[in-house]
Automatic annotation (TrEMBL):
<keyword id="KW-0812">Transmembrane</keyword>
<feature type="transmembrane region" description="Helical">
    <location>
        <begin position="382"/>
        <end position="406"/>
    </location>
</feature>
<feature type="transmembrane region" description="Helical">
    <location>
        <begin position="183"/>
        <end position="201"/>
    </location>
</feature>
<feature type="transmembrane region" description="Helical">
    <location>
        <begin position="453"/>
        <end position="474"/>
    </location>
</feature>
<feature type="transmembrane region" description="Helical">
    <location>
        <begin position="6"/>
        <end position="26"/>
    </location>
</feature>
<feature type="transmembrane region" description="Helical">
    <location>
        <begin position="427"/>
        <end position="447"/>
    </location>
</feature>
<comment type="similarity">
    <text>Belongs to the sodium:solute symporter (SSF) (TC 2.A.21) family.</text>
</comment>
<feature type="transmembrane region" description="Helical">
    <location>
        <begin position="284"/>
        <end position="305"/>
    </location>
</feature>
<protein>
    <submittedName>
        <fullName>Cation acetate symporter</fullName>
    </submittedName>
</protein>
<feature type="transmembrane region" description="Helical">
    <location>
        <begin position="524"/>
        <end position="549"/>
    </location>
</feature>
<keyword id="KW-1133">Transmembrane helix</keyword>
<keyword id="KW-0472">Membrane</keyword>
<feature type="transmembrane region" description="Helical">
    <location>
        <begin position="154"/>
        <end position="171"/>
    </location>
</feature>
<feature type="transmembrane region" description="Helical">
    <location>
        <begin position="486"/>
        <end position="504"/>
    </location>
</feature>
<dbReference type="InterPro" id="IPR001734">
    <property type="entry name" value="Na/solute_symporter"/>
</dbReference>
<dbReference type="Pfam" id="PF00474">
    <property type="entry name" value="SSF"/>
</dbReference>
<feature type="transmembrane region" description="Helical">
    <location>
        <begin position="116"/>
        <end position="134"/>
    </location>
</feature>
Length: 578
């Protein structure tokens, strides 16, 4: 066994053993443990767990890859995902924690005094969470297939098994402590290679500063200027200009990601695990710090990965790399099918250009950039192994949180809340575990047949959460007259118009070559792309809800009193008062 493989096995299986041990130590014995870790997690612990829950395969694997290829346009992910956290911390988390319930649909059921509202919220939650989980499963498959040198499908099955063990056994309690360990693995795996590469390229050990520094070769050229020159020479758009199709689309994309973040059920659930409203606010602050550590490094990782990739394929301007002399990392990624070369002109050299007719790099999957980056930069094998463990930690931590959100929405909200209210706690816990197992199988199937690359699929999930759940929560807290009927109409219309737009655009994302309304082209609605449409869906949700409210009349007086009480500063009378 070669050195790299040995280090990779040690890093990956060592971290897995740690996750299993934590899950066994923190296994859930009650529904309170299973759903909200007994409400006893400290703000610092919760901040780290939120960080891990939050930094999915999309953040760890895909985001820097998107920034590498979109350049300046990729900044929407940084602004949207971190900005959404501020919204969540300020506008939603403290009020929902004060109300003191386990899940988002349960809050919506109470606030809108309606089982119908609860069922609609469950449906919206499952649609958004399943869409999000596809991205995590693809991340697991990509990382495993490359680093353990197994088939993508087998890698996915191994990942499904690992999540199943600690998520089903431990519930929120096991997931919380596992996510704290995963955050530590993830942050080291992301920043250590970035420090090495920043030193190599610019001589500056701080990647955030290296991005704006001059190159270490003594030329006096800034890194970003060099990158602009390299990509434009090959016919690509400048790295530092907008590649996302205009200011309005960038604004809509950022808003969609922001309000989608604030409406993601698996993240909101984390705020129910702390003992008080004050602790909910504090844990949001800690989470922003922990998330910022990774998110401020991502632009440097993306830019440096793109520069290293271009310099490898065309080491000297106008002189292309001989395919027979391609480096080992190139061969390794070719085996996964995520990197493909086709010698169109028969000269044995690699032409990598923006022109599809002459470009011979027929596939460069964006999701490989972070994982391949250390090998492209010739970093030590232990660093490459650490990145493999980090990528898997990112995918597994978010997958576990999403699976818990799905299982609790079905076992707690649908079965106990609507269908069988007299279900015992023991049976509810068993139902939660069975539902989670089924959800893992379904998400594994979708991971084997994923629509688009990981972060694109994830962006769609944020759009769905933005158009359905976020407006319902905002109106529930800040509009005390908002009625149940109006909220249900709003949620249905918001998610409905977003899904119609997404499925219509690009054919249907899930079924290529099909379309409801005929091809309307890329500029269907003010040039707003499908992944950015969640912001428009949210506006539709708000508009429909307030129109229906005018027609049907306000919420009853006792509900308005409940909302007033929720907004008064102070603690909940008892944690998770049912």
């Amino acid at each position: 066994m070669d050195e790299l493989k040995l280090y990779t096995y040690i890093a990956v299986f060592g971290t897995f053993a740690l996750y299993f041990a934590i899950a066994w130590w923190a296994r859930a014995g009650s529904t309170s443990d299973f759903y909200v870790a007994g409400g006893g997690v400290t703000p610092l612990q919760n901040g780290m767990a939120i960080g891990a829950d939050w930094m999915s395969a999309a953040s760890f694997i895909s985001m820097a890859g998107l920034i590498a290829f979109l350049g300046y346009g990729g900044s929407v992910f940084l602004m949207g995902w971190t900005g959404g956290y501020v919204l969540l911390a300020m506008l939603l988390a403290p009020y929902m924690r004060k109300h003191g319930k386990f899940t988002v649909p349960e809050f919506i059921s109470d606030r809108y005094y309606s089982k119908t509202a609860r069922i609609v919220a469950v449906a919206c939650l499952i649609i958004a969470s399943l869409t999000y989980i596809i991205g995590q499963m693809k991340g697991v498959g990509v990382a495993f297939s490359r680093f353990l040198e197994v088939e993508y499908a087998l890698g996915l099955y191994i990942g499904m098994f690992v999540v199943w063990v600690y998520a089903v056994l431990g519930g929120m309690k096991g997931i919380t402590y596992t996510q704290i360990a995963q955050y530590v693995v993830m942050i080291f795996a992301y920043t250590i290679p970035a420090v090495f590469i920043s030193l190599q390229l610019t001589g500056n050990p701080i990647p955030q500063l290296g991005l704006g520094s001059t190159l270490a070769d003594g030329s006096g050229v800034y890194l970003l200027d060099k990158l602009d020159m390299v990509v434009t020479d090959l016919g690509f758009k400048e790295y530092t200009t907008d590649n996302l199709g205009g200011t309005l689309n960038m604004f809509a994309y950022t808003m969609s990601l922001m309000i989608g973040t604030a409406g993601l059920p698996h993240v909101i659930m984390r705020f129910f695990t702390v003992p008080s409203v004050q602790a909910a606010r504090s844990s949001a602050g800690y989470a922003l710090v922990f998330i910022g550590l990774l998110y401020t490094v991502a632009p440097a990782v993306g830019a440096m990965a793109r520069l290293n990739l271009m310099n490898t394929i065309e080491p000297v301007a106008g002189q292309n790399l001989e395919y027979s002399e391609r480096p080992q990392w190139f061969k390794d990624w070719e085996q996964t099918g995520l990197l493909q070369f086709e010698d169109k002109n028969g000269d044995g050299k690699i032409q990598y250009t923006a022109d599809a007719t002459t470009n011979e790099m027929v596939k460069v999957d964006r999701d490989i950039m972070v994982l391949a980056n250390p090998a492209i930069a010739n970093l030590p094998n232990w660093v490459i192994a650490l990145v493999a463990a980090g990528g898997l930690a990112a995918a597994l931590s978010t997958a576990a949180g999403l699976l818990l959100a799905i299982s609790s929405s079905i076992s707690h909200d649908l079965m106990k809340g609507v269908l069988t209210p007299d279900m015992s706690e023991k049976n509810e816990l068993l139902a939660g575990r069975i539902v989670m197992t089924i959800a893992i199988i379904i998400s594994g199937y979708l991971g084997l047949n994923p629509p688009g690359f990981a972060a694109g699929t994830v962006a769609l999930a944020f759009g769905l959460a933005a158009s359905s759940i976020f407006p319902a929560l905002m109106m529930g807290i800040f509009s005390k007259k908002m009625s149940g009927t109006a909220a249900v109409w709003g949620m249905c219309s918001g998610i409905g118009v977003t899904m119609l737009y997404v499925f219509q655009h690009k054919g249907i994302m899930f079924i290529p070559g099909t379309s409801f309304l005929g091809d309307m082209g890329p500029d269907w609605f003010f040039g707003i792309s499908p992944n950015a449409f969640g912001a428009v869906g949210a506006l539709v949700n708000f508009a429909v809800a307030f129109i229906v409210l005018k027609v049907t009349g306000p919420a009853p007086a006792h509900i308005q009193d409940m909302v007033d009480n929720m907004r008064v500063p102070g603690e909940v009378s008892a944690a998770h008062d049912h």
